[in-house]
C-alpha cells in the first residue's frame, strides 16, 4: 500500500514534468485489455530450412503497440423485425450504438443484422406495412405527456378566462413546445379567480401529428402576482376534479410514478 | 553439421519426441479425430496479439541490405478459464516489461478483458450465458451471428473447448435436422441458412469434432469394449463337451467290453490278456 502511494506521487511528479513522453511508468500498470505487442529485441534470422532460434530472456521483453479496447467501436447496422418505440417501424434500417444494439435489439430478437440478403428481403416486404403510429417517437411523447401533471398558475386578483395560450405557456414552461391548434380545452369554460377551484384537476387533449391524441392532467393554482411560483412537489398529491363528471376519466389516467432515491430510503 | 564435437556427440542421443498418435491408444484413433486434433492443436492460429510482417523479403532502410522475413510468433498461454469461455482467439501472454532503460525488466502478464454476456444460437434456439471478450462480439457481428461465427471459424482460431463443443452440437443438430421440432416453417428457413456448412464434414468427423484428448480416449475405449465380446470360459467348455458327447453317442458301442464283468476289471491281480 505504502509502495503504491509512493509510486503514485512519483508518477504525478513525472506527469507534471515536461518530459512526460520519455517516461511511461504511470500507464504501465497492469490493466486487462486486448493488447497488440511487439518484441523489443527480435530474435535473429534462422538458417534456411533450419530450426528456429532458441528464444532467450531478452526476446520476451514486449512493448505495447496498440490497445484495441481503447479504439472506438463502429455502430451496428440493423433491420428491425418489429416496431420499436423511439426507433422505427418493422423493416426499417437503423444504425445504433454497438452495445445497445446487441443487448436491446439483437438478443430480444427485435432486429436482425443488415446482411445483403436481409436488406433485399425487407425491401420486398416493405410494401405491405401498416404502421401503428405516425412516427416512431410518438409513443415516447404520449408516455411523457400522459404521466405529467401540468401546473396552471393563474391570478387570484384579476379576473380571467382560461384560454389556449395559457395552457401553451405552461406546457412550454414544462418543456413541451407546441402550437395552439394541437391543444383542445375542456368543453366548459373555466374562469376565475374562484377559490372553489384552487388546487383542483382538469384535463386537456393534445393532438400529435394531427393523428394521435393524448389527455394531459392539469392542476389549477390561483396565486398572487408577487409570489408567482409553482408549489413544491404538488404532483405527488392527488386532487379532486373541477368538473365532477370528469372524475372517471381522470382516475383512469396514469399518475405520477414516485421514484424513491436511495438516500431517502435510509 | 556443427563443428562442435560435443554437439555432434549429443546429437547421437537425440530421439524424436513421439506424437500423441504414435503410441498407446493414440494409434487406434480414427482418422476423423486425428484430422480435428491436428487442426486444433498443431496449426498456428491467426495472429491476434502481434502484427505479422508481410512479404517474403524486406530491405533494411539504412543499408539497403535485403533480408528474408521470418515471423516468430509470440508464445501464448491458454489457462483453463480460456476453455470455459469464448475468448475469440485471445490468450494470456507472459513476458517482461522494460519500463526504464536503467531499470531491470519486470515480469508481466497481459490478460484480455473478460466480460460476462449472453449469446444466442439460432440453430439450437438457446440463450447461453458466457464469458467473452470484445473481440468475440466483434467477430460475431462481423459474421452476422453467433452460429455463422462458430461454423465459419476453424478450430485453431476458436481454441476454446466450450466453443468447439457448441460447434459440434450445432453441426449434430443440422446433420440430424432436429432443429425446431415444433415449427416446420422455421426449421426449413434456418436449415437452408446453415446447410452450406455441412458439406465440409462427414458424419464421423462431426461425431469426433470438439473432443479433447481425454474425452476422445474415453470414447475410443468404450468403442473397443463394445467390439470385444468377453464370454465366460465355461460356455466354451460346455459347448466343447456337448460336441464330444454327441460324437461318442454316434460311435457304435464296443461289444467286447460289455462282456467283461465289472468285478474282473477292479481286480488288479487277475491276469487278463485284454488289459495289457
TrEMBL record, chain A:
<keyword id="KW-0689">Ribosomal protein</keyword>
<dbReference type="Pfam" id="PF01281">
    <property type="entry name" value="Ribosomal_L9_N"/>
</dbReference>
<dbReference type="InterPro" id="IPR036935">
    <property type="entry name" value="Ribosomal_bL9_N_sf"/>
</dbReference>
<dbReference type="GO" id="GO:0006412">
    <property type="term" value="P:translation"/>
</dbReference>
<dbReference type="GO" id="GO:1990904">
    <property type="term" value="C:ribonucleoprotein complex"/>
</dbReference>
<dbReference type="GO" id="GO:0003735">
    <property type="term" value="F:structural constituent of ribosome"/>
</dbReference>
<dbReference type="InterPro" id="IPR000244">
    <property type="entry name" value="Ribosomal_bL9"/>
</dbReference>
<dbReference type="InterPro" id="IPR020070">
    <property type="entry name" value="Ribosomal_bL9_N"/>
</dbReference>
<dbReference type="InterPro" id="IPR009027">
    <property type="entry name" value="Ribosomal_bL9/RNase_H1_N"/>
</dbReference>
<keyword id="KW-0687">Ribonucleoprotein</keyword>
<feature type="domain" description="Ribosomal protein L9">
    <location>
        <begin position="77"/>
        <end position="120"/>
    </location>
</feature>
<comment type="similarity">
    <text>Belongs to the bacterial ribosomal protein bL9 family.</text>
</comment>
<protein>
    <recommendedName>
        <fullName>Large ribosomal subunit protein bL9m</fullName>
    </recommendedName>
</protein>
<dbReference type="GO" id="GO:0005840">
    <property type="term" value="C:ribosome"/>
</dbReference>
From TrEMBL, chain B:
<dbReference type="InterPro" id="IPR034704">
    <property type="entry name" value="Ribosomal_bL28/bL31-like_sf"/>
</dbReference>
<dbReference type="GO" id="GO:0003735">
    <property type="term" value="F:structural constituent of ribosome"/>
</dbReference>
<comment type="similarity">
    <text>Belongs to the bacterial ribosomal protein bL28 family.</text>
</comment>
<protein>
    <recommendedName>
        <fullName>Large ribosomal subunit protein bL28m</fullName>
    </recommendedName>
</protein>
<keyword id="KW-0687">Ribonucleoprotein</keyword>
<dbReference type="InterPro" id="IPR026569">
    <property type="entry name" value="Ribosomal_bL28"/>
</dbReference>
<dbReference type="GO" id="GO:0005762">
    <property type="term" value="C:mitochondrial large ribosomal subunit"/>
</dbReference>
<keyword id="KW-0689">Ribosomal protein</keyword>
